[in-house]
């Protein structure tokens, strides 16, 4: 029986995961990185509601996660936007929720990711957390036999290499992977497939900062606090009007402040990138790619910017490919030793 590889990318905005992998396609799923806690299993509700969530038991509490998690929400939207995110029960609930949606009982190799700035410090800790037997609720468990953590943009580099057919040339090239996520703006410089750690890092200046900046401008305009960040996000991504008090609200006058946030993040990165003329590939990924694209293009006017299709899933797709390659190499080594 062939061994099973899967990947999870628990971001501050969305949790992405792989549900299937063929030579032609890496199939993914996602849900918001929100976990709502209660003393009772949400699956035992008596209100007749059915929603696409799972209830993950951790330390005698239940964390509801999944695509319809907003239906479980109260007026407080609890998030874990801090550097010790992976130490929280919410993080574990999101990861185990992703495991539940994979519908597997055993995973031979699980690949997970971390922001660049915290990668070295927390890699071993995350690998230990994700290895072992996980209770995913409803009497089910998932055994992860081995876990490997990588820097999140490294996944995007692997995905880019496969998608653009650059396996034969990437070893001689320098690449800059730019990953604006919900909380962090990550960048990774690589030579071939290897991370250049001294010029790769993160700043806490992601899409959540863009959305909060816009919300503050709206609050000032309407004369009361406005906090519906998901509605702003949807309006920006779809071009559909934001509705406030049942009327379309024009975001156009506010957008320059949002673009200023993006430029600030890119400027922080450029302090680290001294020799931009040596970079062959500038790769833009992440859920915030659409909002940061203009700032990246302005910073690299002489480069072609590769904006990956479905940028939110670029990291997790690369995790999956890297995991499959790693497992194949290990199996080849084992066969060689036996012969």
UniProtKB/TrEMBL annotation:
Residue ranges of domain Actin homologue MreB-like C-terminal in the record: 177-297
Cited InterPro entries: ALP_N, ATPase_NBD, MreB-like_C, PRTRC_protein-D
One Pfam family matching this protein: ALP_N
Record domain Actin-like protein N-terminal: where: 7-155
Entry-linked SUPFAM superfamilies: Actin-like ATPase domain (SSF53067)
Protein known as: Plasmid segregation protein ParM
Species the sequence originates in: Pseudorhodoferax soli
């Amino acid at each position: 029986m062939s061994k099973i590889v899967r990947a999870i990318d628990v971001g501050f905005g969305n949790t992405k995961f792989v549900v299937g992998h063929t030579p032609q396609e890496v199939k993914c799923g996602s849900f918001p990185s929100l976990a709502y806690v209660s003393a009772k299993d949400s699956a035992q509700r008596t209100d007749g509601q059915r929603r696409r969530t799972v209830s993950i038991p951790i330390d005698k509490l239940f964390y509801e996660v999944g695509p319809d998690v907003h239906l479980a929400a109260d007026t407080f939207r609890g998030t874990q936007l801090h550097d010790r995110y992976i130490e929280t029960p919410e993080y574990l609930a999101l990861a185990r929720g992703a495991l539940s949606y994979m519908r597997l009982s055993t995973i031979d190799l699980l690949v997970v990711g971390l922001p660049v700035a915290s990668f070295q410090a927390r890699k071993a800790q995350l690998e230990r957390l994700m290895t072992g037997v996980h209770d995913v609720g409803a009497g089910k468990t998932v055994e992860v036999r081995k876990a490997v953590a990588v820097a999140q943009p490294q996944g995007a580099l692997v995905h880019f290499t496969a998608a653009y057919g650059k396996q034969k040339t990437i070893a001689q090239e320098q690449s800059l992977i730019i990953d604006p996520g919900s909380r962090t703006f990550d960048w990774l410089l690589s030579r071939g497939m290897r991370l250049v750690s001294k010029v790769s890092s993160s700043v806490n200046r992601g899409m959540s900062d863009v959305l909060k900046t816009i919300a503050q401008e709206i609050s000032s305009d309407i004369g009361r606090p406005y906090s519906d960040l998901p509605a702003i996000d949807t309006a920006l991504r779809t071009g559909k009007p934001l509705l406030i008090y049942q009327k379309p609200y024009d975001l156009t006058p506010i957008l320059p402040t949002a673009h200023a946030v993006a430029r600030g993040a890119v400027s922080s990165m450029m302090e680290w990138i001294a020799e931009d003329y040596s970079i062959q590939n500038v790769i833009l990924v992440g859920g915030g790619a659409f909002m940061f694209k203009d700032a990246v293009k302005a910073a690299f006017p002489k480069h072609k910017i590769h904006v990956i299709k479905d940028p939110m899933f670029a990291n997790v797709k690369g995790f999956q490919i890297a995991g499959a390659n790693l497992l194949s190499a290990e199996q080849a080594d084992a066969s060689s030793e036996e012969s």
